[in-house]
C-alpha cells in the first residue's frame, strides 16, 4: 500500500474513534451540536422554569377597581354592623313622649339602666291605657326598678326643668343646673294637625325648637340631646341640624337607629293601637321599627361632651367620617313624589298619625 493510501486509512480510523485529527466538517459540527454537553444544557433549561412563568405563578393577579371598591364597601358595612348605644346604664336618662313605654322597658330590662325617667303626654295611666291596653305591664316593670319612674302629662314644649339649684355663698346668687345626662326624644311629631305638607313641616319645626330650648334647662354639663327621625321626606325637610344650631346646640354626630338593639321595643302610634273593624288589635299593623331611621346627638355649643359610653367610642373617628357619606347615600333614597310625601305624613310615630282620617279627627 502506498504512503498516500496509508494516511487515508489512519484518518478514517481516528474519525471512527471520535478523535478526528483535522478541523470538523459542517456535518460534524451539526452532529457535535447534539452531543452530551448540549443535551445536558437542554435538560437544565427544561427543568428550570422561565422568569415569566415563575412570576405569573408567584404573584397574584392585580385587583381590579371594582373588587377594591367592593372590599371597602364590605369593610364599611362591617364597621357599622354593630348598633350604636348613646348612653351608659348609670347615667341619668330622660325619655320624652315614650308612647307605650316599650322603649323604656328595653332600657331597664336589657340595658340595665338604673336612673331612668320616662315621660308621656297623656294626663294619667287611665288615658294611656285607653290607647295602649298593654301599657300597665310596662309601667309596673319600670317602676319596679329603684331609681326609675314614669311621669304623666309632660309636654315636650313646656316641660318643667329637671334641675337642682345651688346658692353661691359669696354672692348669694342662685344658679340652676340640669340633672339629665341624656335626653332622648324618639320620633317626635305633632300629629295630624294639617294635611298640607308645608304647614305640617312648620308645625314640627316649632315643636323641635321649643323642645330644644326646654331641654337645655334640664341638660347636665357635658350631657347630650338625642333625637331620632325617620329617613326620607318629609322628615328631611325639617332641617333638624339647623334648628338645633339656632337653639345653641351643636351636632356632635349622627348614626343609624337600629331597633334590634332594643329588644321588646315596638313603635307606638300617637292615637293608640291600630284596630280592625271589629275593634280588635290589628295583627298586620304597620311596624315603624322596621323603617330606616337616624339618630342625631346634640351638645351645647360651648360645652365639652362627656366621655362616650362603653362601646360608643370605638372607631369613633371612622364613624364620624362616614356619617356624611352615609347621608349622601341616603339622599339618593329620599322620596320625590307626592306618594312619598303622603306616606311620610301618614306614617305614625310616638307623635305621628297613620291615615288622613286620623288627621281629620285631630282637627
Automatic annotation (TrEMBL):
Question: For bias kind Low complexity, which ranges apply?
Answer: 45-71
The segments labelled Disordered in the record are 1-89, 297-363
Provide the 25S rRNA (uridine-N(3))-methyltransferase BMT5-like domain boundaries: 94-269
TM region(s), chain numbering: none
State the signal peptide span: none
One GO BP on record is: rRNA base methylation
Q: Where is the composition biased (Acidic residues)?
A: 320-363
Protein name (record) = 25S rRNA (uridine-N(3))-methyltransferase BMT5-like domain-containing protein
Which organism is this protein's natural source? Pseudoneurospora amorphoporcata
Q: What is the lineage of its organism?
A: Eukaryota, Fungi, Dikarya, Ascomycota, Pezizomycotina
Amino acid at each position: 500500500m502506498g504512503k498516500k493510501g496509508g494516511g487515508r486509512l489512519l484518518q478514517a480510523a481516528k474519525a471512527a474513534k471520535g478523535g478526528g485529527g483535522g478541523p470538523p466538517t459542517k456535518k460534524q459540527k451539526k452532529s457535535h451540536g447534539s452531543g452530551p454537553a448540549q443535551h445536558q444544557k437542554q435538560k437544565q433549561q427544561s427543568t428550570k422554569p422561565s422568569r415569566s412563568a415563575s412570576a405569573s405563578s408567584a404573584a397574584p393577579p392585580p385587583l381590579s377597581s371594582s373588587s377594591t371598591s367592593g372590599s371597602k364597601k364590605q369593610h364599611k358595612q362591617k364597621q357599622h354592623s354593630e348598633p350604636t348605644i348613646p348612653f351608659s346604664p348609670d347615667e341619668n336618662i330622660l325619655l320624652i313622649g315614650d308612647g307605650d313605654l316599650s322603649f323604656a322597658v328595653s332600657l331597664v330590662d336589657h340595658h340595665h339602666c338604673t336612673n331612668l325617667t320616662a315621660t308621656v303626654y297623656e294626663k294619667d295611666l287611665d288615658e294611656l291605657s285607653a290607647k295602649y291596653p298593654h301599657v300597665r305591664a310596662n309601667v309596673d316593670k319600670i317602676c319596679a326598678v329603684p331609681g326609675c319612674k314614669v311621669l304623666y302629662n309632660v309636654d315636650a314644649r313646656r316641660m318643667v326643668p329637671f334641675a337642682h339649684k345651688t346658692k353661691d355663698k359669696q354672692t348669694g346668687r342662685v344658679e340652676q343646673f340640669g340633672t339629665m345626662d341624656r335626653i332622648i326624644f324618639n320620633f317626635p311629631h305633632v300629629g295630624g294637625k294639617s294635611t298640607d305638607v308645608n304647614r305640617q313641616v312648620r308645625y314640627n319645626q316649632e315643636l323641635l325648637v321649643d323642645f330644644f330650648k326646654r331641654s337645655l334647662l334640664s341638660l347636665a354639663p357635658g350631657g347630650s340631646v338625642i333625637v331620632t327621625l325617620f329617613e326620607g321626606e318629609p322628615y328631611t325637610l325639617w332641617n333638624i341640624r339647623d334648628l338645633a344650631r339656632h337653639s345653641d346646640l351643636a351636632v356632635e354626630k349622627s348614626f343609624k337607629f337600629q331597633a334590634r338593639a332594643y329588644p321588646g321595643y315596638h313603635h307606638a302610634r300617637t292615637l293608640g293601637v291600630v284596630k280592625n273593624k271589629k275593634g280588635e288589635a290589628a295583627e298586620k299593623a304597620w311596624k315603624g321599627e322596621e323603617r330606616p331611621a337616624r339618630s342625631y346627638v346634640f351638645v351645647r355649643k360651648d360645652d365639652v361632651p362627656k366621655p362616650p359610653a362603653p362601646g360608643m367610642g370605638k372607631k369613633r373617628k371612622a364613624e364620624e367620617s362616614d356619617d356624611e357619606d352615609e347621608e349622601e347615600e341616603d339622599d339618593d333614597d329620599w322620596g320625590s313624589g307626592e306618594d312619598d310625601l303622603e306616606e311620610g305624613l301618614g306614617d305614625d310615630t310616638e307623635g305621628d298619625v297613620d291615615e288622613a282620617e286620623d288627621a281629620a279627627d285631630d282637627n
